[in-house]
């Protein structure tokens, strides 16, 4: 069972953008050494706690500092971009780094409406019809295979070359069904919508089978994870990161910016603790020791039939994310060593 990671280049209190990006590279290097299958970089804009507005640039940087792990987007939000521009970016990445580049695509904005307008998000591009049309056009640019009479047929993509594998990302049953109908591999964001995960998996498989595609579809389940030596230590690690987000959001609601001392203060009220841990529970996070997380991942695979698991972290510091990845890898190794 391949296990991968999703990274959003988190920007913690007191961190500069350069150090946050360096941390993402460090996490990718550790993931490669620990045997993880791929690392994907997210796309968020005007986000106070992330510096991943340009995933193609981060992909190039992580791929340049690694040699075997697959590197890709989790994902490029296609309505924010022209299909030709995305095709050029990823053809360039493949030309530089070869066949280990992935192209994951999503429809969500990754920001607020004003920011999306400033990005040049095209009217109607996020509708079912507009998004599907962009997917068809992007597929044509990547593969050179076009529907008959398509107006973009004949436009030259530079550089030319083999296309990267393409995945559709989503957090709804509707997006799962669309991926199956189109014959695309699908990554379901369970960390955003855990309650629909089983139905999404079933709908994806059913739609894929009904469409009669030649090759089997690949289903990736993304799940939030915090892991440590003990379940108590994992709870405390999750709490630290959750408090930062909770306090920062509270300060923004008051029209101010919280300083590092406020965000990092280890003291918290029971109400704060309860609110943070409830948010993790609502997102279906696995927060436990290595054995507990490994058991939870195995249960997720059994229930959804996923072909691959992708871990999303809640933590800011590279050391904390690496601790989680190391513990999960250890737990999975121990579990696979136990005879069935």
Nearest-integer average pLDDT:
94
C-alpha end-to-end distance:
15 Å
Number of helices: 12
- Quaternary structure state of the chains depicted: single chain
Task: Give a quick account of the main beta sheet: strands, pairing sense, barrel closure.
Answer: 8 strands, parallel, barrel
Strands of the widest sheet, in order across it, are: 1-2-3-5-6-7-8-10
In N-to-C order, the SSE pattern is EHEHEEHEHHEHEHEHHHEHEH
Report the principal-axis shape. Answer: globular
The assigned structural class equals alpha/beta
Low-pLDDT runs: none
**Structure summary, number of beta strands:** 10
Q: Kindly provide the radius of gyration, computed on alpha-carbon positions and rounded to a whole number of angstroms.
A: 20 Å
Strand content: 15-25%
- Helix % is 40-55%
């Amino acid at each position: 069972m391949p296990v991968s990671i999703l990274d959003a280049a988190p920007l913690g209190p007191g961190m500069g953008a350069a150090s946050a990006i360096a941390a993402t590279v460090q996490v990718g290097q550790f993931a490669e050494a620990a045997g993880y299958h791929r690392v994907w970089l997210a796309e968020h804009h005007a986000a106070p706690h992330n510096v991943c507005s340009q995933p193609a640039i981060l992909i190039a940087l992580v791929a340049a500092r690694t040699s075997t792990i697959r590197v890709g987007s989790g994902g490029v939000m296609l309505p924010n971009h022209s299909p030709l521009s995305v095709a050029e970016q990823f053809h360039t990445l493949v030309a530089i780094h070869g066949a280990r580049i992935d192209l994951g695509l999503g429809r969500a904005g990754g920001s607020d409406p004003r920011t999306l307008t400033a990005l040049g998000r095209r009217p109607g591009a996020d509708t079912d019809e507009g998004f599907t049309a962009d997917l068809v056009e992007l597929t044509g640019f990547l593969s050179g295979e076009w529907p008959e009479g398509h107006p973009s047929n004949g436009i030259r993509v530079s550089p030319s070359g083999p296309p990267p594998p393409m995945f559709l990302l989503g957090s709804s049953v509707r997006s799962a069904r669309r991926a199956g109908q189109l014959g695309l591999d699908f990554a379901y964001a369970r960390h955003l919508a855990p309650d629909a995960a089983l139905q999404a998996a079933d709908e994806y498989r059913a739609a894929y089978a009904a469409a009669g595609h030649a090759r089997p579809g690949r289903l990736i389940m993304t799940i939030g994870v915090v892991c440590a030596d003990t379940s108590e230590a994992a709870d405390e690690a999750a709490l630290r990161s959750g408090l930062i987000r909770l306090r920062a959001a509270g300060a923004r609601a008051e029209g101010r910016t919280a300083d590092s001392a406020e965000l990092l203060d280890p003291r918290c009220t029971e109400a704060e603790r309860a609110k943070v841990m409830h948010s993790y529970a609502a997102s279906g996070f696995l927060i436990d020791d290595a054995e507990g997380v490994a058991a939870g991942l195995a249960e997720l695979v059994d229930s959804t039939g996923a072909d691959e698991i992708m871990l999303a972290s809640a933590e800011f510091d590279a050391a904390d994310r690496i601790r989680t990845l190391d513990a999960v890898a250890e737990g999975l190794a121990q579990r696979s060593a136990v005879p069935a």
